[in-house]
Amino acid sequence: MDAKTSAELYHASRERVTAAVRGLAAADLDRQVPACPQWSVHNLVSHLVGVSADFVAGNLAGAPRPPWTAVQVEFRRNLPIDAVLDEWATAGPALERLVVSGTTSHPLVCNPYVDASAHEADLHGAIGSGRPPAEVWSATLDWMLDSPGPLTVITPDGTYSAGSGGPPAVVRTSSYELFRAIFGRRSAAQIRAWDWERPDYAAGWSLELPRLPQTSVPLND
Q1: For a tag site, which of 7, 12, 173, 180 has the least CB within 10 Å?
Q2: What's the rounded Cα separation, in Å, for the pair 93 and 95?
Q3: Is the pLDDT at 1 greater than 90, yes or no?
């Protein structure tokens, strides 16, 4: 993907999340995010803002592991949501300019829409703000599943390869379900329920497909 498109996808996600969150009541901001059960809605937005600020500042040590994200959340924990969003209104465009500039080759910095799209979908699961549009999660799938693997996932929108081990297998699901599953937002049981050509392979691959640990309970968003 070219840098301009990456920046545009991130910008659009940032605008949608900002519009969905600004003006929320305190109870909604305190609501637990089912896909990120240790975070409230406020915490999730704080992370998104913190990512942009850290990427622009070059603070990449430990990214994107939990200790790195925890600092972002804690730093903004007691700030009003308007202050957090105002920071994003500055840091977000700065990140978009950085992406377009071509002065960084860090894969996370060059593709900020990937993390943003996953958390935009998380936000939808918490407050019903709407799924991200297909263009962003399709681009995310292309980026996340860019290497040949023994698992072939067929969706109505395309065919993807995944996995680094295990037997060759074929499964069918929707593109959105695949998008959520690779970020650990679908349980092993949900992945096993996909349309597997060899059902006996489903159990093993349900544990291998996510790039992040799976949720312990089924999620629907």
Answers
A1: 12
A2: 5
A3: no
